[in-house]
């Protein structure tokens, strides 16, 4: 399949952001890296939404990816960031393959509540695990990449570049995935499951594969978030975190793979400035922002680009 214009634009945007890291303040580098890492989890939410499913439990795999990085360093002595991310990915894939057999049999509110339930089970277990720091969590050890350990002043830019690299690969993969047979089948299932079955396509198999991939991408986002923050805690699996991912998914829309990245950055900036200027009402500002998006841009921020393209 040839590289299309959209993929060139994605690569250009990621490279531009990588180059601009030299000129950004440290706090903004950290903010962007964390926002882009969370955007990968949102990509998983969008994948499920395109199949007609809404998950309020993606924090489960976000947390597993993060804790795999933390535990791999603290208990196994592994410091290579790529290997730690691979550990988080492997643990999440195994769990997703097991839970997916059950969860993909349900739809609508039942699917949403079941995903939330499993995420809260993990939260409860971590809160009661004193060996893992209970509610406080624990710090991630200093990491390296293929034997190279970045200096103190280079950690921020290094982790941003690594997050951008993973984000670019996943964005290009999903751009192809959504146009593939299974990606189009997910949209068909959202519209009419019965007709998909009559066409000879197993909706159960399609949803299962889609679920496992979505959870795997979420785990990568969790692993990167742990490396960025340098800390993991049970709040990663709490319902509020999963709700944040759904919030960002609605904010950006499901029209393009770039939408979650744009929405995650906007969400992070809005929340940062809201907390700074109105610390007692920042939740209200986020709520008003989402309300305005739903009223005037029901298909998310990305609909601004598609609307402009149609008028041209």
What does this structure look like?
- It is built from 13 helices and two strands, in the order αααααβααααβαααα.
- The chain is mainly alpha-helical.
- It has one domain (5-311): ABC transporter involved in vitamin B12 uptake, BtuC, CATH 1.10.3470.
- 72% of the residues lie in helices and 1% in strands.
- The radius of gyration is 19 Å and the shape is globular.
State the separation between the terminal residues, measured CA to CA: 27 Å
Give the beta-strand count. 2
Q: How many strands, which pairing sense, and closed or not: the largest β-sheet?
A: 2 strands, antiparallel
Class derived from helix and strand content: mainly alpha
Number of domains: 1
Averaged pLDDT:
89
CATH fold call: ABC transporter involved in vitamin B12 uptake, BtuC
Going by CATH, the architecture would be Orthogonal Bundle
Q: What oligomerization state is this entry in?
A: single chain
List keywords for this structure.
single chain, 312 residues, two-stranded antiparallel sheet, globular, 13 helices
Please write out the topology.
Elements: H1 5-20, H2 26-50, H3 59-74, H4 81-103, H5 108-127, E1 138-139, H6 155-177, H7 181-191, H8 193-198, H9 203-229, E2 231-232, H10 239-252, H11 258-277, H12 282-296, H13 303-311
Antiparallel strand pairs: 1-2
Helix pairs in contact: 1-6, 2-6, 2-9, 2-10, 2-11, 3-4, 3-9, 4-9, 6-9, 7-9, 10-11, 11-12
């Amino acid at each position: 399949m040839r590289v299309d214009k959209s993929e060139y634009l994605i690569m250009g945007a990621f490279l531009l952001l990588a180059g601009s890291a030299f000129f950004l303040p440290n706090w903004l580098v950290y903010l962007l890296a964390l926002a882009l890492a969370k955007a990968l989890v949102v990509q998983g939410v969008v994948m499920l939404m395109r199949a007609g499913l809404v998950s309020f439990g993606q924090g489960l795999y976000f947390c597993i990816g993060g804790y795999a990085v933390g535990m791999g360093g603290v208990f196994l002595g592994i410091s290579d960031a790529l290997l730690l991310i691979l550990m988080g990915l492997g643990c999440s894939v195994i769990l997703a393959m097991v839970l997916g057999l059950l969860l993909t049999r349900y739809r609508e509110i039942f699917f949403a509540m079941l995903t939330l339930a499993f995420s809260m089970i993990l939260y409860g277990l971590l809160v009661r695990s004193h060996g893992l720091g209970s509610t406080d969590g624990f710090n991630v050890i200093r990491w390296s990449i293929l034997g190279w350990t970045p200096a103190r002043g280079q950690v921020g830019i290094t982790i941003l570049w690594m997050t951008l690299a993973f984000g670019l690969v996943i964005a290009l993969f999903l751009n192809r995935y959504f146009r593939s047979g299974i990606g189009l089948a997910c949209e068909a299932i959202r519209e009419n499951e019965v007709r998909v079955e009559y066409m000879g396509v197993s909706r159960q198999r399609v949803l299962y594969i889609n679920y496992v991939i979505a959870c795997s991408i979420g785990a990568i986002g969790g692993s990167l978030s742990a490396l960025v923050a340098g800390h993991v805690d049970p709040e990663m699996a709490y319902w509020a975190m999963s709700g944040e991912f759904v919030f960002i998914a609605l904010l950006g829309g499901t029209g393009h793979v770039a939408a979650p990245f744009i929405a995650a950055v906007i969400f992070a900036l809005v929340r940062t400035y809201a907390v700074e200027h109105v610390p007692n009402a920042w939740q209200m500002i986020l709520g008003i922002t989402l309300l305005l998006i739903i009223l005037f841009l029901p298909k998310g921020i990305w609909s601004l680009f598609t609307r402009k393209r149609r008028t041209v």
